[in-house]
């Protein structure tokens, strides 16, 4: 394959996103989706909605877990 100068196509490395879907957040913490929903509605976990998909930030999950430290 011949590539023109300035038109080199590279491979994008995996980029870790700070955003997690509810399913990914549940997997990240090792809990159920229902538990994440309970955190959202009962404990004030901040969430963001983009159309029909709900996202949470990893740092918000980490912060919530740290607050529960004994």
**Helix coverage percent:** 40-55%
Low-confidence parts, pLDDT < 50 over ≥5 residues? none
As a whole number of angstroms, the C-alpha radius of gyration is 18 Å
Strand coverage percent: 15-25%
Which shape, going by the Cα principal axes? elongated
Q: Helical region count? A: 3
Mean pLDDT level: 88
Record the strand order, biggest sheet: 1-3-2
CA-CA gap between termini: 60 Å
Largest sheet descriptor: 3 strands, antiparallel
Order of helices and strands: EHHEEH
SS elements, strand count? 3
Structural class: alpha+beta
How would you describe this structure to a colleague?
The chain is α+β, with helices and mostly antiparallel strands and 70 residues long. Helices cover 40% and strands 16% of the residues. The protein has helices spanning 22-29, 33-42, 58-67; strands at residues 19-21, 48-50, 53-57. Helix 1 (22-29) packs across helix 2 (33-42). The chain is elongated and about 60 Å long. The relative contact order is 0.16. The mean pLDDT is 88.
């Amino acid at each position: 394959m011949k590539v023109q100068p300035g038109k080199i196509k590279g491979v994008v490395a995996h980029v870790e996103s700070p955003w997690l879907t509810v399913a990914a957040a549940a997997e990240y913490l090792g809990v159920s989706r229902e538990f994440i929903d309970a955190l959202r509605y009962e404990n004030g976990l901040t969430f963001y909605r983009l159309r029909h998909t709900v996202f949470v930030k990893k740092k918000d999950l980490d912060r919530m877990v740290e607050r529960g430290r004994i």
